[in-house]
C-alpha cells in the first residue's frame, strides 16, 4: 500500500516521554533570547544541550530602549550569555569566541571591531575582552564598569552588583590604558577613594560607589 494511503493513529507513534519537556524548554529559551536567526541559534542550542554545555540563552527578555537603532547587535543580556559560556577559561581561543558569537547571531563586524581595539591575536584574555565589549554598550568608562559589575557580580538580580575591588581596579586601569586620555593622577585619585569604600564592604565595590557625586570622575 502506498505510504500516502497508510492511516496512522496514536497506537502507531511512539513519542519519547522527554520530548514535550525538551520542546517546552526550547520554546521558552527562544522567547527569552529572541535570536535574529532562529535556525542558526537552534542548532547552537541543541548542540550545547547534547554536550552538557552552557546554553546560548538569556536569563530574561530584554526590552529595547527607544533610541536603539537595531536589535541585531550586542546587548548586556547577550554579553552575559557569552560570559557564562566562556568565563571558566582565563584565555579563550579566538575561534571558539567567534563560534559562540555566531551562535548568538551577532554581527561579525562588531566582534572584529572589538578585537581590533587592542589587536588581539589567536588567544584572547577573556576579562579584557569583556571590558572592551562592555565599553561598546555605553559612551563612558563609568557606564562600561557598571555593565561589567552587573555581569560579574554574584549578587542576585536587582542586588547591589558587587564585585571584588581587585577586579574593578584591573578593569578600570585596563580601560583607561586603552582610552589613553585619562591621567595617572586621575586614575589613582579615584582608586584611592574607592579603596576606602571597599574596605567598608569586605573588599567589594559596587556601582553606587563610583556613580555617586563623591567619587571623582573615572573618565
TrEMBL record:
Keywords: Cell projection, Cilium, Flagellum
InterPro entries recorded: ROP_DD
UniProt entry tagged with the keyword Electron transport: no
GO cellular component: motile cilium
Subcellular location per the Swiss-Prot or TrEMBL entry: Cell projection, Cilium, Flagellum
UniProt keyword GTP-binding present: no
Family from the record: Belongs to the ropporin family.
Protein's name according to its UniProt entry: Ropporin-1-like protein
Organism expressing this protein natively: Pyxicephalus adspersus (African bullfrog)
Amino acid at each position: 500500500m502506498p505510504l500516502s494511503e497508510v492511516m496512522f493513529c496514536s497506537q502507531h507513534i511512539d513519542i519519547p516521554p522527554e520530548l514535550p519537556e525538551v520542546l517546552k524548554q526550547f520554546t521558552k529559551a527562544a522567547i527569552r533570547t529572541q535570536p535574529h536567526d532562529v535556525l542558526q541559534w537552534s542548532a547552537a542550542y541543541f548542540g550545547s544541550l547534547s554536550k552538557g554545555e552552557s546554553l546560548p540563552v538569556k536569563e530574561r527578555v530584554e526590552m529595547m530602549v527607544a533610541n536603539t537603532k537595531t536589535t541585531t547587535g550586542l546587548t548586556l543580556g547577550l554579553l552575559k550569555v557569552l560570559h557564562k559560556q566562556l568565563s571558566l577559561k582565563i584565555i579563550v581561543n579566538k575561534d571558539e569566541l567567534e563560534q559562540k558569537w555566531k551562535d548568538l547571531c551577532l554581527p561579525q563586524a562588531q566582534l572584529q571591531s572589538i578585537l581590533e581595539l587592542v589587536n588581539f591575536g589567536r588567544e584572547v584574555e577573556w576579562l579584557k575582552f569583556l571590558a572592551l565589549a562592555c565599553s561598546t554598550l555605553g559612551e563612558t568608562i563609568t557606564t562600561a564598569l557598571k555593565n561589567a559589575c552587573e555581569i560579574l557580580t554574584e549578587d542576585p538580580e536587582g542586588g547591589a552588583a558587587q564585585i571584588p575591588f581587585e577586579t574593578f581596579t584591573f578593569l578600570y586601569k585596563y580601560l583607561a590604558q586603552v582610552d589613553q586620555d585619562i591621567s595617572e593622577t586621575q586614575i589613582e585619585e579615584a582608586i584611592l577613594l574607592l579603596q576606602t569604600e571597599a574596605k567598608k564592604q569586605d573588599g567589594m565595590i559596587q556601582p553606587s560607589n563610583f556613580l555617586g557625586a563623591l567619587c571623582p570622575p573615572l573618565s
